[in-house]
Every structure is written in structure tokens, then in C-alpha cells.
Design brief:
- The protein has four helices and seven strands, in the order αααββαβββββ.
- With about 180 residues, it is of the alpha+beta class.
- The longest helix has 26 residues.
- The protein is globular.
Length: about 180
């Protein structure tokens, strides 16, 4: 059967053609729509990382109140490491951690690098490499895993922080080596 069309007009697309065209159209429209979302995501990313920076600023300043200010009430702190060759998990009360920061005789410095930030609605996660120094002395390294929640006032706060701790085979921050 042959289709004849008036000059200058195309035959109607076959039913299967729409299935191929719709995804292309959605992709094209999707490329235009998220411009505002991208900016909002970048603002949230900046705000989330600022909370984490404030935590580490408080640790360097031995300021327990600054440390307390970045956590939601009842936040979880979990540390994992190998103890005598076996996995060990330690739960740390937030208040106990803030008191330890207050009572530290030397600054606790924890440079971080290569953050991986993921944000969806009012939840953010950050996975970041770190090295920990007590004063100028290297102590340990690992990964920090943060879960942050946006509060009703729009502020981000840490709901949970977990870390790994190792003393060997450490990757160091780009600008420091062990003992420096």
C-alpha cells in the first residue's frame, strides 16, 4: 500500500516514532529546566560545607560551644577502627565530644579534602577524606561521613558523623605530610 501526500507535507509519523521522539524532547526540556535548581544546589552545597568547616574551626580553636552549634540535639557520632586486628565501633556522645574539644590542651586540626556532597530536599551527605593532627603531630587519617539535615529555619546541621580511623597507609592532604 502506498501513501501519497500532498506536495510539501510529510506523512504522519508511525506509532513507534513517538516513543523515540518523546525521550529526546524530555532531555531537551530537562536541559533548560534545572538552571535554578543547579544554583540552589550550589548554594546548599556551599552552606553544607560551611557547617563542616565551622566544626573544624571549633576544634582548632578548642571551642566546644562552636562545635555544639553545628549538631542537632541528639546527633550520633560513631568511630570505627581496627583494634588489635578486629573491627571496633565506638559511639561518642556529642556533649562528651564538645567537652573534650573544650578541654583539649592543644588544637585539634583535621584538614579535609575531596568532598563528595549529595543533596536531596532537606538531607545532605558528605563523604570526605581527612587527616587528624593533635597540635602539629599527625595522629590518624580516614574518611568522615556526615549526614546533615536542613532545619525549619533553613540552617543545615549535622545529624550524624561517622569516621574511620587508621594510623598506617594514610593518604595525606595535598599540602601536608605526616608530622608537618
Amino acid at each position: 500500500m502506498s501513501h501519497s501526500t500532498p506536495r510539501g507535507r510529510r506523512p504522519p509519523p508511525t506509532p513507534g516514532a513517538w516513543r523515540r521522539l518523546v525521550p529526546i524532547g524530555l532531555i531537551a526540556l530537562g536541559g533548560l529546566a534545572p538552571a535554578g535548581d543547579v544554583l540552589a544546589q550550589e548554594d546548599d552545597r556551599t552552606a553544607v560545607l560551611a557547617v563542616i568547616d565551622r566544626l573544624f574551626d571549633g576544634m582548632r580553636a578548642n571551642d566546644g560551644d562552636m562545635v555544639r552549634s553545628v549538631f542537632v540535639e541528639g546527633a550520633s557520632l560513631v568511630s570505627t577502627e581496627n583494634a588489635q586486628g578486629e573491627p571496633a565501633t565506638r559511639l561518642i556522645p556529642t556533649e562528651g565530644f564538645a567537652e573534650a574539644v573544650d578541654n583539649a590542651e592543644i588544637p585539634w586540626d583535621e584538614p579535609i579534602w575531596d568532598p563528595i556532597v549529595q543533596i536531596q530536599d532537606h538531607l545532605a551527605t558528605v563523604w570526605v577524606k581527612y587527616a587528624f593532627y593533635a597540635g602539629e603531630d599527625f595522629s590518624h587519617c580516614g574518611v568522615d561521613a556526615f549526614i546533615l539535615a536542613r532545619q525549619p529555619d533553613g540552617e543545615w546541621k549535622i545529624a550524624a558523623l561517622a569516621d574511620t580511623r587508621q594510623r598506617e597507609d594514610c593518604e595525606m592532604p595535598p599540602d601536608r605530610e605526616p608530622g608537618t
